[in-house]
Write a structure and sequence with these properties.
Chain lengths: 627, 410
Amino acid sequence: MANMLGIGISGLNAAQVALNTVGNNLANVDTAGYDRQTVVQVERIGQSNGRLTVGAGVDVVSVQRQYSQYLTNSVWNSNSSLQRADTFNDLTTTLNGALAGSGNLQGALDDFYGAFSTVAGAPSDSSTRQAMLGDTSKMVSMFNTLASQFTAQQRQVNTQISNTVDSINDLTKNIASLNQQISQAGPSGAPNSLLDQRDSLVGQLSGYVGVSNVQEKDGTISLYSTSGQALVSGNESFALGTAKDPYDATRTNVTDAAGNDITSKISGGSLGALIDYRSSVLDPAQNQLGQAAQALASSVNAQQAKGLDLNGKLGSPILSIGGPDVMGSSANTSNATMAASISDTSKLGTSDYIISYDGTAWSMRTTGGQNVPLTDNGDGTLSGAGLTFTPSTAPPAQAGDSFKIQPTRNAASTLAVAMTDPSGIAAASALVTTADKANTGTGAIGSTSVTDPTNTAVLDGATITFTSPTAYSITDPVTGTTTTGTYTAGQPITVNGMSVTLSGAPAAGDKFTVAANTNGLNDNGNALDAAKLADTGVLDGGKTSVLDAYGNLTTQIGSAGSQAASNLATQTSLNNQAVAAQQSLSGVNQDEEAANLVKYQQSYQAAAQVISAAQTIFTSLINAVQS
Amino acid sequence: MSMRISTSWSYQQSLSTMLSQQAALAGTQNQVSSGKRINVASDDPAGAAQALAIDHTLSANNQYTTNIGTANTRLSTESTTLDSITDQLDSARTLALQAINGVLAPEDRASIATNLQQIRAQLMQLANTADANGDALFSGTSSTKTPFIQNADGSVSYAGTDGQMMMSIGSGLQVAIGDAGSGIFMNNPNGNGTFVAAAGSANTGSLIVGASSVTDPATYQAGMTAGGGYTISFDATGNWSATDATGNPVLDPATGAPVGGPYTAGDAISFNGMTVAMTGTPAAGDTVTVGPSQNQDIFSTINNMISALQGTGSDADLTNAMNRQIESLDQTQASVTNTQVLAGSRLGVLDQQGQSYADLSVTYQDALSGVQDADPAATISQLSLQSAALQASQQVFAKVQTMTLFDYIK
């Protein structure tokens, strides 16, 4: 009898625990990180009375969470990739929007180059010249707007890096604290809710940065970043930090707990996306835009310098633009400085460089780590990658000093209109060559051009007299000096920063006079040449025009965006698969719980019925004895 | 064992399916409303770059078309102006012929001179014509508004340049949109264009020097280079002889004998690769000088006519003077006509080029539209497909997610 009562009570208890568990499952159906729990029951060992053994009821040994470390790991890993893809996609979407929203730069460039043609149609007309300055400032402001969008995104990335590092630190701190509670409870304590909470936080952490984990024997979890830095070990957490870039104080980098710069080692999660996006998309985009701006300014200004403005002067620059940014490392031991200038736009790349001194010589590499040849010019300057460097001699650089060079990073934001007076547009050719009427040879003037506008004698002109079909003498009309040269058909004759090319065969005694075109200010030769710049290769060794460069930038930004979008789709589906597999094991199914509820309710009722039967039997016995 | 479905995950999945369907629908909707397939570069990076390239070509075409318009206006103005100049030159020539034909009373001469003065003034004005921008048509590349300046002595000087304004009407294709006034009006050779044969100013006979020409360029060139010019003299016996610039007799290059012989009125005199037509009878000692042509501007030509008419010379003097000036006028006329032909052919090039840009623009517009525009039919059918799919998802969600066992256990 007592046995039957005991069995009934054990059944009641088991059903109650099971009902509680079902209830808890149902209550947590939408709780993030919750793992479904099930009741593990075992049969109580019965006592033998010698002839037979009657069972003694049921025992609940544990309430287990349905959990697979393998499936959870795969959720964490795929979440890391998903959040990386998501953040990357957000950033490229913003960038594509900025590109589309900053106006039609290529249209503005076309208008700008076209304005030279319009000026060529009426070189002395001040209204077309004024309109051209208008087109110039429209085009410049589009460069500036786009550049400011890029700069704004750099700031946004910096802020997001700081915020993400803060979130990571909060999470690792909480995980360490949960680890402590878990280890105190001990492995047998089975703190399901603590484990769920902790795993949920690890899941969140993996969204911020790629992590690997080691499950420790005491139930705690150790976490490492993908670069190997410990983030959590037992009840200890190791906070990441942020620091200014050693070269560029406006740039936020990531450090480990010891303060070492680990920016380039971070991967995975939204932090990995921010860092990767910054160096692989945003920096190159800014550099490319700057490169186009630099090429535009230098080619237009160079053409301008080859012509005469309405005042009969060699043209002054239409555009102004900043030079390369040079940033000394905060680790430099000297106060040495470095000057950098662009010497050949056609050789400008889109990389940034680190130039460093080993105590005897300078060397240069890209920020990506590739060595770049550097030529010592012997006059205290160095050349490489289309740039000229001048390290200061007082104070001299010390071994280990280095500088970061950003040739075009901020060029597009510094682009400005330098010209205010429309009569400054140099539409006329600077020089005019006339063949003497008495010439007997077939030599005719092919072209005359200014090769070096800085030569002060360039507008003085010259008289070229052929002393034989293959020799000539040049008389400078100002100084009266005469120089001689050997004539090769088709080769230009150069003097005083100008170059004259003849066609045909000049005869002995033939004379050609080169003079400043000051009487021909309605000439439009230089304006027509400037209009041709629209399709002239000025970058990549003369292969790429400014418009091509803008086209390339568009393709780069567009490709980054479409790749990010398709990567996001892939990662989303991979993550869905991982979560579905994990949820299939650990998720709560309401129907299943409903069925279990019915089952355990009935178990409870049955156990209660057993107790009731025991009572009935006992009452019958008492009654029998009393009567 | 079949797969367990987690209730909350299945909610989440249904939800995210609908959300992504909505996003796709919104994207298609954007394509329909903007009409563009590429709204940001990432929609189609290669297409976006291609669209930029086509757009640039279109802009260049438009600019070339504008340039062609500018060139057309200028060359048409030039052509019209040259027509008017031709008319004035024709009138001057007619007046000059009137002065030669027949015996003129002094008042007739004066009236012709007055007419010529008016023509000269007209020519001045025409030569200083401005284009649509107010720039002188015939100043070469100079910015001066009056390239032709009348000096105090009645002569005219040219303040422009010999250069030509060009206009770019295609990649690597430039066309001249003007001609320097120096070439048209100033630097034309007098005489027959190679040499001029003129009656001596002290002649007393009735000799009239007519048309002259080169019959053998090589012999002419050799003789003129060696001799530097000739003087043909007539003696009392009616014979002619010729001397060179240094006074030596001119020798026949074939025979080595001095050229010369009897002269008959109306005969041409020919030697050293040239021939000079003559009429009338020279007096003894009368001469005809032959020298290389010099440049003479049209204003000097007309001035010379006027002063001959206003002078007191004999009819023979007047006729000789007028003959020479008509020769010069014809040279200018030829140069004006040449310029007109050039301008006309440039206008032809402009027309052709303009037409081809008009055709190309249509082609490029089509290409651009093909790259960046959404196909309306395809986009709209996609839109209805996507909205049907979204509706289906919503219906399935409403059905499936309301099914629960709890409805059946009471």
